[in-house]
Amino acid sequence: MNENNGRIIGVGGNLLTVEFNKSVVQNEVAYVLTGSRRLKSEVIRIRGSYADLQVFEDTTGLKEGDRVEFTGELLAVELGPGLLTQIFDGLQNPLPQLAEQCGFFLQRGVYLDALPRDRRWPFTPAVKAGDRLTAGETLGTVPEGIFQHRIMVPFKLKGSLTVERIAAPGDYTVEQAIATLRDADDQTVEVTLMQRWPVKIPIRAYVERLRPGEPLVTKVRIVDTFYPVARGGTYCIPGPFGAGKTVLQQITSRYADVDIVIVAACGERAGEVVETLREFPQLTDPRTGKSLMERTLIICNTSSMPVAAREASVYTAVTIAEYYRQMGLNVLLLADSTSRWAQALREMSGRLEEIPGEEAFPAYLESVIAAFYERGGIVRLKDGSLGSVTIGGTVSPAGGNFEEPVTQSTLKVVGAFHGLSRERSDQRRFPAIDPLDSWSHYPAVVASEQVGFAREILHAGNDVKQMMKVVGEEGTSIDDFVVFLKSEYLDAVYLQQDAYHEVDGATSAERQRYVFDRIYRMLGCKFRFANKDDARRFFQRLTQTTRDWNRVDQQAVEFRQIEQQIEQMLAEVSDYA
């Protein structure tokens, strides 16, 4: 047992200064003893014989001279079957079980096992004695929901290992040994269904990392067509309060073409987190027809919880995402919101008396955010299969100011930017992604030349709109007015989407390509109108008819009937053919 102890010599909020005698390492876990409680903390800075610790709990009552026990272990999470459907806090405590034990008000110093120790899992071996394996390769599988959960050679093991013993098919708990491995130094290692891994060290038990190139279909039209996300890519959603970040995340998590969804509610308001916890079990998974929670995992730290735990929740989420990626699965990690995490970094940096950067955020903010997003990606595993982690982080800039440090630091490392607009939100244009400011470096589900032309229409229409604010509608030519109407039509029937409609709420890639091709041809038409009132009335009717078209299933007879009606309307006033 590790008997490395220290004593507190300074307390400043969640930051403790501790004097120690034996060796201590960065990110080591320590427990602060106060009465009968042991408060979990992490070493964040070492200076000679002094260590600075951030405590993950309320530090009320701590005083100089209190004892600290260093564990010799890094902050780590438990990885194994039983993670899915769970709701954890940032330290991987299962919150439902914690609530059962503590009641409505969680007590500090109470830590529970992340994985159930009494549950038995049906294990099926995939190797035999004498096989040679390396870290990350599969020893066997257990069923977890709709997936086969791979039991892998622990990621910490080095070199080639020989299977000395593999358990027979049967039911085992996560603590029972199911294999014995022998390494190159002739040392044996017992392997269980569960392993532990430090949260701040990426899992790299794969052959190669690939460049994201395949679109991740979210079934949100403005995303997939105009500002796509790649499988294994990264994107951010900055926006002011009330602009629709939460609904957009829920739609993405429900319909995105991924296997597993991990939601990290990091420092958001308690009411918003409670809404997420209530909504997700009620959402129907379109893949299975069952609850979406069966392939979802939620990690939540509300704004009322200690700020140090916000950082832990982000790293816990991305480590679990990497673990499922090692099984050849596609994982979507939604972090809401990285601004709260950055605020926690700022608070701790201030307590450490570090030289501040812009707006008092730490000078290393960019590198910390970049390191987090770099843990996404698509990888080729040792068995030849592919796995991916796609990271989408929301940012909550004060006043919707995208020039603030957290947003700017994030934009430097992500591949797509979905900027939410207060103006569009107030106009009830949802999703409120600004089509003029957003961008993406990834390929879309629609041909790039078609999307490029549509963007030109949007920009040209906005220019006419701004001009009309100055000279009025009467000072605008009919040709410019038609360009404006085209841009408004594209916005109304394609960029906007009814998230609560069973058909319009999710548009497949095939339907997006089909519908956008018709709209693209319409945008290139030359219209014949006698005056602006005629043009306005025509586009109002066209907009309503196309919206009705969006609400009809593509396989229904009515879908083709409405399409023919639209084509007939266009043929009467343009060169559409």
Describe the protein's architecture and organization.
The chain is an alpha+beta fold and 577 residues long. Helices cover 32% and strands 25% of the residues. The chain is built from 14 helices and 26 strands. It has helices spanning 95-102, 221-226, 245-255, 270-282, 308-325, 338-351, 365-373, 405-411, 422-426, 448-471, 478-495, 509-523, 532-550, 557-573; strands spanning 4-12, 15-20, 28-34, 37-47, 50-55, 67-74, 76-79, 87-88, 121-125, 132-133, 138-144, 147-152, 161-166, 170-172, 177-182, 188-192, 195-198, 208-210, 234-238, 260-268, 296-302, 330-336, 377-380, 386-395, 416-417, 439-440. Strands 8, 18, 19, 20, 21, 22, 23, 24, 25 and 26 form a ten-stranded mixed β-sheet that branches. Strands 1-2-5-4-3-6 form a six-stranded antiparallel beta barrel. Strand 4 and strand 5 form a beta hairpin. Helix 13 (532-550) runs antiparallel to helix 14 (557-573). It starts with a strand and ends with a helix. The relative contact order is 0.10. The model has no long low-confidence stretch (mean pLDDT 93).
Q: Could you give the topology of this structure?
A:
Blueprint: E1 4-12, E2 15-20, E3 28-34, E4 37-47, E5 50-55, E6 67-74, E7 76-79, E8 87-88, H1 95-102, E9 121-125, E10 132-133, E11 138-144, E12 147-152, E13 161-166, E14 170-172, E15 177-182, E16 188-192, E17 195-198, E18 208-210, H2 221-226, E19 234-238, H3 245-255, E20 260-268, H4 270-282, E21 296-302, H5 308-325, E22 330-336, H6 338-351, H7 365-373, E23 377-380, E24 386-395, H8 405-411, E25 416-417, H9 422-426, E26 439-440, H10 448-471, H11 478-495, H12 509-523, H13 532-550, H14 557-573
